[in-house]
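Lab notebook: predicted structure, single chain.

Context: the supervisor wants predicted structures on file for every construct in the current expression panel, including those that have not yet been purified. This is the next one on the list. No modifications to the sequence; it matches the entry in the shared construct table.
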Amino acid sequence: MPFLARRTAFVSAVFALLVTLCLCSGCDRPESSHKERPDTGQNARESPSQRPATEGITIDPIVVFEEPEADTPEQAAAAAQSAPQEAVPPVASGTARPRVAIIIDDMGYHQQLGNQLLALDLNLTFSFLPAGPFTAQQAALAKAKGREILLHLPMEPRNTAWNPGENALYVRDTPERLRQKMAGMFSAVPHATGANNHMGSRFTADAAAMRVVLTTLKEHSFYFIDSYTARGSQGLATAQEIGVPAARRHIFLDNVQETETICRQIDELVAITQKKGAAIAIGHPNWATLSALTEC
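Prediction complete. Output recorded below exactly as produced.
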């Protein structure tokens, strides 16, 4: 698709997540099972390289989170073939415009980059880590700009080398302890209306643990987006069982943090949306994603 046509289609399709969720509840055919994300604690490391400075602008070091390699195309294809069938039918000609929700995860740890993402003239959804040093400031800015805000729930990964962050939710936690931890998270991101999981390949695979979390979300009238970091996730099924509005993401934009690759993912996102009527994508704060959202 030519640049201008692609960009126009992309911008016109981006809607608030809550609107897309109404069309997309029951979406359960993600593009692929995905990597875990950050080490957000004291072991988080800063990038040795920085984006070239623009005159008059100070470039802050960017927090870089440890992650395994992105899925290969073969793995993505295999995951798509084995996933349950999509509940959303294709859009018939002449019906309502397709809708896209784009979530920017891991907000709250990147001051300048986060602020630039918030300044984009796109109706993005921002998911904030409760312990982020810039979460309070940036979540307030997102609220002032009328953006949809999510609570990015840090959850236990399978790989113990990955640190999900302060006060993360673990399968070993008692139900009461899980609720106590979540109470602090709700306070840290008071403008949130929904939640999605941060890491969580082990936690989301445990239906009993997810039931506690989702019941607590239901008590706060939250919806839930399953980031789908593991193909065995029980998040969507458990949410539907107890009556929590929920959906799964369809595609990650930036498994590969290169602008051209992300642009191709945006093309794929547009194609999915035109076929299914609604789709959910997840991206992260990095310069390549910012560039792609600005230029693609």
